[in-house]
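Summary of Year 1 activities. Much of the first year was spent building the evaluation harness for sequence design. The harness presents a backbone, in tokenized form, and records the residue chosen at every position. We chose the following record to illustrate the format because it has been used consistently in internal testing since the harness was completed.
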């Protein structure tokens, strides 16, 4: 296994070329808002020491490539910015990438192992990979390195809780998917309480795909629906890719529900639903999972996307920090680049780099003692980044969710609800407070 002999802690106190020079509480607090201050980069601060290898394994080809490419872009941008600020204690980050294509645990593990064996990475900084959400953790645990990902799965939290002494280095940068179910039902409740929408019946159709992510969200909605006065009149699993929605739509039109909840998340498939639903819609709110956040969804669905609701537990906020990131991201990768996906490993990289600086440096594979110090700093950080606040639940190493899990917006990652109101523009963030920038509007196919 490749070792980096220069990876031992190396602190040069007082140098302007060090990112996070001192591990003090004041330093951590000052750097919490760092992404908002990147316009003030100074070339003299650029890192010049021996490079620290970091890696990412993600789906840069095949059906999830629209996300995987943005994950690569997000880490690339973060490394460039961190290096311009002085790197980690004067050492620049050098990213390497491995493709996981169709994903799955076996492929994901092989890609992660290549990052360790070929490049000797000190950290794996991912977006998401489809699979159990509890496989790459084994690679990280065996190598004694840090792993940050956004798989959004309860599988991660259950694994870490089962053996925190082994999985101390694995962190999920967002909350698990189970919060989507409760959050969605509360969102609907709030729409009704505020008089913004009134259900025409108590029926809800839930459409899912067979993967763990979509199934867990759908089951969470199903299990809690009755508590909010809903009857699930259709619970159907579709095959992936789901390009033909005719049979499902026939069932929906036969018994029209007040809400259609789709937990499948691939943008092209969801866009096809809109195209086939649009000519003969039912008077139903349509909620979709994550996929509409990608520009590819709007490009395909066009005006049929107007009115669609979706949510994300991890996306760039439409505030000062988030919009500044969007401008930098699109200036580098193009106007149609999906900054919401890129924001995931971008924030993850900053959380890890900040913690490594506070810990006195990162550790190479096999240097578990140093990386445990990094993990301890990550566990105690409250990082206000592009996607909101990252703060990890003890012994679970997953981000707290706001407002479902905590009621303080400064202590949890916001569960964002968005609506496409004009497909030629970005989505409108309608909840939760205080992050909302727009009001909910009735979809054009529902008459007031």
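For this record, the design step produced the sequence shown next.
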């Amino acid at each position: 296994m490749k070792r980096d002999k220069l990876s031992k802690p190396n602190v040069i106190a007082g140098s302007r070329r060090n990112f996070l020079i001192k591990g003090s509480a004041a330093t951590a607090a000052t750097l919490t808002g760092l992404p908002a201050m990147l316009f003030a980069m100074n070339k003299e601060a650029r890192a010049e020491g021996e490079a620290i290898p970091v890696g990412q394994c993600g789906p840069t080809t095949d059906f999830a490539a629209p996300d995987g490419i943005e994950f690569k872009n997000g880490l690339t941008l973060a490394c460039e910015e961190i290096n311009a600020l002085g790197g980690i204690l004067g050492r620049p980050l050098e990213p390497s990438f491995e493709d996981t294509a169709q994903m799955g645990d076996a492929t994901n593990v092989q890609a992660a192992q290549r990052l360790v064996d070929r490049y000797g990475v000190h950290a794996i900084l991912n977006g998401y990979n489809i699979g159990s959400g509890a496989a790459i953790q084994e690679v990280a645990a065996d190598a004694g390195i840090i792993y940050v990902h956004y798989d959004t799965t309860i599988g991660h939290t259950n694994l870490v809780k089962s053996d925190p002494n082994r999985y101390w280095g694995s962190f999920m940068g967002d909350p698990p998917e189970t919060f989507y179910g409760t959050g969605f039902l509360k969102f609907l409740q709030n729409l009704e309480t505020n008089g913004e929408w009134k259900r025409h019946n108590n029926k809800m159709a839930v459409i899912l795909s067979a993967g763990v992510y979509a199934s867990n969200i759908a089951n969470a909605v199903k299990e809690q629906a009755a508590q909010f006065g809903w009857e699930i009149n259709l619970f159907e699993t579709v095959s992936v890719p789901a390009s033909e929605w005719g049979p499902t739509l026939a069932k929906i039109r036969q018994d029209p529900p007040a809400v259609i909840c789709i937990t499948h998340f691939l943008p092209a498939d969801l866009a096809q639903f809109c195209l086939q639903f649009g000519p003969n819609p039912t008077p139903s709110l349509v909620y979709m999972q994550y996929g509409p956040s990608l520009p590819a969804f709007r490009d395909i669905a066009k005006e049929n996307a107007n009115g669609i609701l979706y949510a994300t537990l991890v996306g760039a906020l439409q505030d000062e920090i988030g919009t500044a990131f969007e401008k930098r991201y699109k200036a580098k990768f193009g106007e149609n680049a999906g900054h919401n996906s890129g924001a995931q490993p971008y924030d993850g990289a900053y959380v890890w780099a900040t913690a490594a600086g506070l810990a006195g440096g990162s550790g190479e594979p096999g240097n578990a003692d140093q990386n445990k110090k990094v993990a301890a700093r990550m566990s105690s950080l409250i990082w206000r980044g592009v996607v909101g606040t990252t703060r990890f639940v003890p012994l679970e190493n997953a981000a707290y969710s706001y407002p479902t899990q905590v009621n303080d917006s400064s202590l949890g990652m916001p569960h964002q609800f968005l609506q496409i109101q004009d497909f030629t523009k970005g989505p409108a963030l309608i909840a939760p407070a205080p992050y909302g920038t727009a009001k909910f509007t009735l979809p054009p196919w529902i008459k007031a």
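The first strand starts at residue 52 and ends at 58. Quantitative recovery figures across the full test set are reported in Table 2.
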